[in-house]
Amino acid sequence: MWKTKATKGMLAAVLAAALAVTLTSCEKKNSSQINLAMEEEVPERVVLLFVPMEKSNPDDENAARTAHDKTVAMAEERLGVTVEYRTYTAENYQERTYDEVLVDRARNNMDDFYLMNPDSIQLLGAEGKLADLSGLDVVENLRDVVKVANTVNGKLVAIPQEVVAYGLFVNKDMFDKYQLALPETPEELLECCRVFKENGIETPIGANRWWLENFVFAIGFADLYNGNNTEAEIQAINSGEAKLSDYMRPGFEFLQELIDKGYIDAETAYVSEAIEGEGPDFLAQKTPIVMAYWGAANADTAYGKADFNMQVIGFPSSRGQMPVVPITGFGVSAEAEHLDDTLKVLEVLLSDEALQIYTETNKVISPSKNIQVDCIDALKPLNDRVNEGVYVLGSNASLKVEQWSNVCLVVRELLAGATVDECMARFDQLQEESLEK
Questions:
Q1: How far, CA to CA in Å, does 397 sit from each of 126, 327, 400, 427?
Q2: How far apart, in whole angstroms, are the C-alpha atoms of residue 301 and residue 296?
Q3: Mean of the pLDDT values across residues 256-262?
Q4: What is the per-residue pLDDT across 11-50, written as a single tens digit (0 to 9) for each?
Q5: CA gyration radius for the chain?
Q6: pLDDT tens across 102-151, in order?
Q7: Which of 174, 173, 185, 179 is nearest to 315 (CA)?
Q8: Please, what is the angle between helix 404-415 and helix 213-226, to 10°?
């Protein structure tokens, strides 16, 4: 599908030989003919992108991929380059995850740019493997949340095509049936769960092994990100002056209470994949609450065809319903072989013109502050909070301890039976290790 360096070198030699033959046969031809022959041999300009999936077929129903590919096509046409996809296929990597493979490829400078998850952004940014994108013209249009989350050592190392927001997906009809208001605080959610449980709903909250950390972020970081002292608090955590576990403990204690009271099935959650585990019961109206990312509300393969009044709200916190926003993004290899062309491609992909197409196609939150999403009614509560600037970051590269993956893994320890104190000890260890670097 793509050309290796060896193959490209071989092609260059073939082209050189062909050009020599052409010039020899053209010795008696005029200069315009020679120039034309040379122009016909100009090699193709290519940039190499490592992503989880292939380019979409024209009739592909995957809206997210189609939106991305539309913007790639715009860049290719406008710049005269070809974006070649190098893709991750699980069977080719013997159980290695996409992130593990990506990090290895980036460390070995195998591609020009990458579509990265938060933990990869932080790791590779800290290692100096990613180029500084702060000089791109598109940066002036970015929401502050994007720049804050993806800045490492003063460098903006990744920019996304969308801002991914997580929230609680609730069956509003079931809440109305029992005259329950949608919860704003952890205490109100506990009360809703109590009422549901007493009325025969076995598991009020459907959970999986990946997304329970959103409760921890919302509860633990509500004040940090929505107060007036964010930068100082982060510096205190990074220096060890403040304990990260003090921020994590309230959320873990809340999860433990949900487990103890049977509002979450810990054993099922521990082994369940996202949406596949809890999705059928939510759609069948057996459980009134699940958690998911913004795009799941639009996807027919997730919750886009619910037969009830679905609402997507923020996670409960001391400051009310709180969206959780982990920032992904495109990062460019600091030593990319085609660096100039790659940066030009990003200027197109992340321009307001391209992001408008992407946003309209996917109905997502744009990283550009100039573009507003025309979202479905179910997503308006979550969208309103983000537009108000009320959210917490589930990933922040300026925090030395990586959040998204680490919190997820420690939550899984809680699901498996670890105590809250044991989980806090793990965060203390992670923080101590970060101080030693």
A1: 9, 10, 7, 17
A2: 8
A3: 97
A4: 232 223 332 323 233 333 344 443 444 444 545 789 999 9
A5: 25
A6: 999 999 999 999 999 988 999 999 999 999 999 999 999 999 889 989 99
A7: 185
A8: 130
